[in-house]
Amino acid sequence: MYHVFVINPYPALIICSVNPFRLIGVGLLVWTIAILCCGFSFNFWSITICFMLVGVGEASFISLASPFIDDNAPVTLLC
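Above: the chain sequence. Below: its structure as tokens.
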């Protein structure tokens, strides 16, 4: 879980210079590949590294998706 906390601030800092949809897409791609690698892992260290990459993919969603949804959701549905 620590890898999510370490990586989490970086997508939020990069959002000023890169399209947020692209960052979310890259995070989704990293997360998908890491999940597939977790399924094909063969020992403890391979699943540990793949699980850390899952956290990197999740970090892009944690820092980017929530503010994006908050900005674009209708106010009537938030209450």
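Residues 8 and 15 are 12 Å apart (CA to CA).
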